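notes to self, project folder thing:

trying the whole complex as one job this time. last attempt i did each chain seperately and stitching them together was a nightmare. three parts in total, labels are on each line so i dont mix them up again. if this works i'll redo the older ones the same way
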Amino acid sequence: MQFTMYHHAFVVLGVIVLAFIGAKKFKLNTELTLFVSAVAALLAHLVTPMGVDARSALPFTEIIRHFVEGTFTYFDVCMTFLSATFFMTLYKEVGGIDYLVRVIVEKFYKKRIILLLLLMVIMMVPGAVTGSGATTVLTVGGLVGAVLATMGVKEERRVGLIFILAAMSAACPPINLWAMMAAAGANMPYTGFGVPLLLLTGTGALFATFYMTRGAKCDREVNDVVASLPQAPEGWTFLKAIVPFIVLLVAILGARVFPAYWPVIGMPMIFGFSTLGVLLVSPKKVNLLEVGMTTVSNLKELVGIMVVVGVLNQILTLTGARGLVSLGVVILPIWLLFAALWLILPVSEGVLQYAVAPLFGVPLIMLFNMLGYNPVIALSCWAVMWPCGDCLPPTAVVGKAAVMQMEYKGDYYKGFLKNVLVPVLFVLAVCTVVMIFNKPIGSFLGV
Amino acid sequence: MNKKMNLNTVKAIALVTVVFCMAVAGYLFREHRTFKETVVVSDYCTEVKKLSDYSTAIKPGSVNDCNVYIYDSGVEGGTFLLLGGSHPEEPVGPMAADLIAENLKVTQGRVFIITRANKSASTITRVGEAYPRFFNLDTNWGTKTWRFGQRHAAELDSWPDPEVYIHYPSGQNLANVDIRNINRNWPGKEDGLISERTAFAIMELIRNEGVDYTLDMHEAELEYSVENTMVAHEKGHDVASIVTMTLTAETFDVPISMEFSPKALRGLSHRDIGDHSDATSFLIEVAEPMLDRIRGITDEKLLMEGKDIFVIKAGEHGLLYAPIDENGWPIEKRVARHVATTTKLIETYSMMHPDQAIAIEGIPTYNQLLESLAPYYRDPNTVDSSLIYFD
Amino acid sequence: MLVLINGFITLCTYAIALFFLVCIVRSFFKTKNVQDALVYSIMLIPFVLRMLRLK
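result (full assembly):
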C-alpha cells in the first residue's frame, strides 16, 4: 500500500491528539499543551513519509520561522484584548464600575424587564461594533454581572449569561468577523447580512436573558440593595462615569459617519483614547504599570492561548492536516452537513478560533452556492454558530474571559458549561432550522 | 532554594531559546523583506519611472514606490497598462509581467508594465498559511528568485487596521484587512493608508498617461467561482468576449471564460479603474491550487507544480470550478495562459479600436512557454547594467 | 493631514505594544510558576519582533 499525503495528514492529526492527551496527563496548562501538540505535529511531519512525490526541503531555520510566524496569527486580537482589559481594569480600579452599578440599580432595580433589556443592550453593543465577544466581556461584563448579582441571579447563570450575550454580541451586526472573513475569502460582498444576523442574535440574546434569569426576583428594597454594593470613591458624577464610553463610541462610530475623513484608529488605540478619558475624569489616581501588570496576569491564559493556537494553525497548514480536516467537512453529503454543522462549527471554533471562518466558511459558501442555496442566509447561520463554540476547549477564549471577569471559582465544565448548554443548544437549533430553510427565508427577507 | 534554582534555570533556558528563535526568524523575515528581485528589461524599454513620479501620495523610495517599465514605440497608437503583483501570493502576476518586460518590443503605441503593484505585500508572508518565503525558477544561467508574499500590504507598513473597512468612495463595508488589499482599494484614496495611496497613484498614472486599457493579472483557488476567466468592465465586454472565445477555440486546453464585472462589488480593478478613468479595465484569473484551503502540505513544490491530491479529491466530488488532474496546474501553464491572454488582448483591442492600436513583438507563444519559461528570463550577467532593475 | 494623523496613531499603537511588552517581561521575571514563565516567554515573541519591525 502506498503511503500518501492522506496517511501523512492522518498521522499528524493522530499525533496531535496523543500529544494533547499526554501533555494534559503531565498536568501542563492548556497553552503549553497546545504548544507541545504543535511541536509533536511538526516532528511527525518530518519523520513520516509525505506521500509518493518528493516535497520541498524544510531546513531547521525555516521550521523556527514557521513557529515564530504562527505566533503573529492573532497578534491584533491579542492587542485588542490587552487594551480593552487594561481600559476596564483601570475603570474598575478608579471606582467607575462601582459608581455605574449603583446608578443603574437605583434607577431600574424595580423594573425587572426593562432592567434586563437594558443590560442585554449594554452587552450587545461592544461586540456588535467590534466583532469581539471577549471585548464585550472585558468591557461591560463585570458591570452587567454586578447588576445581575443584585437581582439575585445565581453565580453560574450570571457567568453563563455573560458568555452567551458576549457570543451573541460578537455575532450581532454590523460587525461579524466570521461572516466578514468567510465572505472576503469567497469574494462575496458583505451586504445583506444585517437583518438575518440581527434576527438570529436577537432571538438568541432574548431567550438567554430571560431563561438564565428565570426565578430571580427584584423584591428587595432598593435602598437595601444599594447599601450592599461597594461604595464608589468621592467625586464621581454620572457625566464623568459615561465620558470614557462616549469617547469609545465616538471613536468607533466616527469612522462609520465620516469614513472619508476619519483616521484609522484601530481597536487598541480606541481603547487607548478611552483610557485617556478615564484618566481625565477619574477622581482617584492609580499606578498605570501596576494596572498593566494586573491586566497581563489576568489575560495570560487568553493571550497565551491565542498566541499558541496561531502556532498550531501554522503547523497544521504546513503539514497538510488542516487541509485534510477542511476537505473532510466539505465532502460530507449535504444532509449530513445540515445535521452536523451545529456540532462541527462550534467545536472547530473551540480548536482554531477565527481561523475556522476562512477554513470552513469559504469551501462551504462555494458548496452552498453550487447547490443553489442562499449563501447569505447560510453564512449568517454559521456566523452565529461559530461564536457558540467560544466556550469549548481547548481555547474557550470567551468562556474563560467570562469566568475570569466574573471571578467565578466553580468548575468550568460542571458549573459554567453545564449552565450554558440549554441556551447554546437553542441558538444552534434556531440556526440549523434557518440554514435548512435558507431559500424561503432568504426570499422572505429579500436577501 | 532548589525550587528557586529550578525556576531560574527554566526561565534562563526559556529566555535563551526564545531569543535564539527570534534571532533566527527575525533574520529570515528581514532577508525576505529586503530581498531585491532582478528585472532585466528588454533592449526596447525606453524609460523606467517610479510610481512616485505620478503622485505625491507615494513618497519617493518608500516601499510601494515601484518601478514603472515604459515601452514607447514613438509611433502614434494606444496605451496599455499591465499590472502584476497586486496579490503577491499569486506568483503568476509578477512572473508573467516580468517575462513580458524582459522580452517586449513595441512597434506601435505604448505599453506600461508594473510587476509589483503592491510591493509591500510581497515583503511578508501570510501568517497562519505556512507560505514559503521565496519561489525559484531554474534557468541555464542560474536560479531566478522572486519573493512570495501575501494578499495584503505588510503590517509593518500599515498598522493598525480599522474594525471595518469602509471603501472610498462607495461606502461599501468590507473586511477590515481589505484596507491593505489593493484589489479592494480601487480607485484609491490620496490620503488613505498605503494600499489606498498606491491605488490612487496608479490611477494618476492611468489618467496622466492617457491609458486606454489595463489588465490586472491574478490567480485564484479552484474552489472559487471566478476562475480561469477574464472579468471585463462593460466598456470592454466586446473585446473580452472575442479574446476569450478565440483563446478557448485556438489555444487553451482548459477554456477561459468571460465574466461581466459586477457593479455590486466595489474596490476591484475591473470595476473601479473603468468607472473612475477613461480606461477600459480587465482582470484575468488562472487556477492556483496553493490558495485552496483544502490543500495538503504547503511548500514551494505545491506552488510551482500545482499538484495536490486533496484538491483533486474535492474535484472528484464536484466541488471545484476548474479541472485538475494528476498533472496539476504547473507554473509554466499558468504563466503561459496569462502571457497568451495579454498578447491576445492587445491584438484584439487594436483590431477593434484601430485608433488605439498597439503592435508588439518578441513575446513567446503559449506553446513555447508551456515547454519551459526559463529561456525567456534574461541572464543579468550578460547584459549592460543599465538594463538591470530591482523590484 | 490625514496621513500625518494616521502616522501618529501608528506610533501610539507601537507605544501601546511596547507598554504591554514591558508588562509581559516584568511578569516573566516576577512569576514563581514555571509554566506561567514558559507561557510569558512565548507571548513575548510577537511583541518583540513587532517592536523591532521585523514582522
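what i see at first glance: Chain B has ten helices and 16 strands.
need to look closer tmrw
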